[in-house]
Amino acid sequence: MNNAAPKAIAVNKAVNDVIRSDRGRLMAGLVSRLGDFQLAEDALQDATISALGHWGRSGIPDNPTAWLMKASFNKGIARIRKAKREGQKGHDLSLIIEDEDPMYAQEEIPDERLRLIFTCCHPALEEKSRIALTLRTVCNLNTREIADAFLDTETTMGQRLSRSKAKIKSKGIGFVVPEPAQWGERLNTVLSTLHLIFTTGYVSGDASSRNLCLEGMFLMRLLDQLQSQDAEIEGALALMLLTQSRKTARVSSEGATVPISEQDHALWDAELLQEGQALLARAVQRRNPGAFQIKAAIADCHMETPEPDWAQMLLLYQSLWRFEPTPVVALNWAVVLSETGQPELALQKLGELKDALSEFQPWHAANASVLRKLNRSEKASEAYAEAISRAPTEADRLFLRGKLKQLYN
User: Fold this and answer.
1) CA distance 358 to 190
2) Helix (H) or strand (E) holding 346
């Protein structure tokens, strides 16, 4: 009995270590072979339970990941056969394997996570579903952790994940990396999804149980590793790194949001900043511009010392408009116009966006700021009040209340 407890602890740790580090690779290999997200997940769960008992009796295998892959695959086949015996619709086993004792007994598992990411981020899925499925499948966040990140109930998020897996199956969405003709469109969907994971964590301050900023950066680094020398992937990763480098400086000691132009540069993470700038420079040298590279360049200009390079940012937004002619880009462009000494023109542009963005909190905050520059205190006060009521975080509310007070000082 004295040796049983330490042995059980060691086995449990070994299983958890494999799941934490290699779940994405395992799921990618299983989905590729079994052709079904839910079946792959169930089979991996079955194999994980089996590992706890088997490894406890026979010892931890030399290649725990390969053991789990083989066991999971066999569990998946067993589930398919059981479903067939019970008269349920099953897979054609000949499409999966002819050999009962398949793959991965000794050799390294092929890394098919690139396929998995593209499948999870398929444009046929809703934006929120793409994010949730990617976090669940590639990052190993459980349903409760994902639900917490989106302020959903665990039941609601579980239903969303189930619908996403079912849609992939019913639509026949292929577990593939797109052909060259589809690469640009699908890659942009993937990059947008991964960036939204990062942004969700950044805006929320990572109050959830898992740090979504780090999860987003992990996924983008993984994508860069799996598909190297792609300028847009490098640009998207650079944007994350530059943004994350400011994290410590973004909230004051009083708990209020601090705009980039007012942040203490000494608080920025120099290592992340340098890495992001070097990555952006490398992407630009490839001479294949795209939206994420431009956004990273804008972030870099915003972090110039001693003050942001507003003139360069104005040109960059003009370039970004060619890729993303959206109201949000127009809003940010108007803000930069105001900072370059053109508040009247900025106010005109904001007015043109009212119908499209009247429910969007940053539009009200930008409107208040421009009205303040024009010394239209009464209207600025009304705009600040509206922006405060719609602010997503207490830090943003504190910042805006401070600006509102300054109107009358």
Assistant:
1) 29
2) helix 343-352
Q: What is the DSSP letter of 194?
A: H
The mean pLDDT value for 385-409 works out to 93
Distance CA 152, CA 146 (A): 8
Asked if residue 320 lies in contact with residue 298, where contact means CB atoms within 8 angstroms, the answer is yes
Closest listed residue to residue 313, CA positions, set 289, 338, 288: 338
Q: What is the pLDDT of residues 109-127, one digit of tens each?
A: 678 888 999 999 999 999 9
Residue 305: closest CA among 247, 348, 350, 261:
261
pLDDT in tens, 11-48: 999 999 999 889 999 999 999 889 899 999 999 999 99
Cβ(187)–Cβ(232) below 8 Å: yes
Percent of the chain surpassing pLDDT 70? 92
- For 353-408, where are the alpha helices, taking DSSP H only? 354-357, 361-373, 377-390, 394-406
Q: Which fold has domain 330-409?
A: 1.25.40
**Residues 335 and 312 sit within 8 Å (Cβ to Cβ):** no
Residue 251, SS3 per DSSP: strand
Which string of b and e fits 84-119 if b means at least 16 CB within 10 Å? eeeeeeebeeeeeeeeeeebbeeeebebbbbbbbbb
pLDDT at 195 over 70: yes
Residue type present at position 242: L
